[in-house]
Amino acid sequence: MWTLELLPYLEPLLARSQQPDNLCGPYWIALLLQTFGKQTVSAVEVAIAAHTLLPDHEGCWTPHGAESLTGEGYDKVPTVPDAAQCGTSLMGLLQATQQLSQGEFCLLPLQTQHWEYGIAELWWLCQTHPEWQIVPLLNSHTSYFWGSHLTPANLSGYLNAGESDPPPADWSVGHFALLGGWMSGRAARLYAILDTYPQLGWQGLHLQPGRAIAQSLERPQHPTDGGVALFVSAKLQDPIEQAVNSIGFEVSTWDNGTPAPQGAF
Fold first, then answer.
1. For residues 22 and 43, is the Cβ–Cβ distance under 8 A?
2. Cα separation of 256 and 240, whole Å?
3. How much is the pLDDT for 263?
4. How far is CA 98 from CA 93, 182, 250, 256, 264, in A?
5. How many CB atoms lie within 10 A of CB 190?
6. Of 52, 125, 145, 224, which residue is the least packed, with the fewest Cβ within 10 Å?
7. Are 54 and 87 in contact (CB under 8 A)?
8. How many CB atoms lie within 10 A of CB 213?
């Protein structure tokens, strides 16, 4: 029997709506501030604080089956003609998180040379320190993910024998999603990703092997970089930073392709 284990403090995030177009990073920060900080803040408000850039032209910005969605104030988010620069920079998200929470929460950006090992160690850290309520925010490239609608044969083959012929990725874009849990079998494990579109997986929850997540963060053959940012209480930043350093992570930012706001720390 396979058991899906979720971080208990993330269960309130299971019932969530679709993100506004191109605002995956701000969507998560808004939702986390609402959930853990009891703040009233929207994804659009986070996007403005993070200096998010939107495309100035029409296009298909959603995975298959999802309809376009914007929101109040969406037209106030700056636009640029180059779609490759659109999105939210990591530095912008760091700045917005601190600013909108008035210093109560922060993002701790992590890099490592061994992502597959690092993801396993990070999950174990979250499990063994639930009182820290660490929320791992993945800045992935979705082209390396397995397709989100796995069949029973896919699950059985991988979890019980370490072999599978998964469906291709649903879409190809730089993206923010949460690492929320895992499912273990006799031979392997799959990690539960909480995503921003209900059309992906089971109402936005899909399963990915550690190797696929590692590649989505390393982004080989792509000019941009990825990483993991931990959403944590600012009061706990020092012990959490010491803990992640001890399991092989470096606290360091990355360039995901969107220009950082001027003067960002």
1. no
2. 24
3. 65
4. 9, 29, 20, 20, 11
5. 26
6. 224
7. no
8. 26
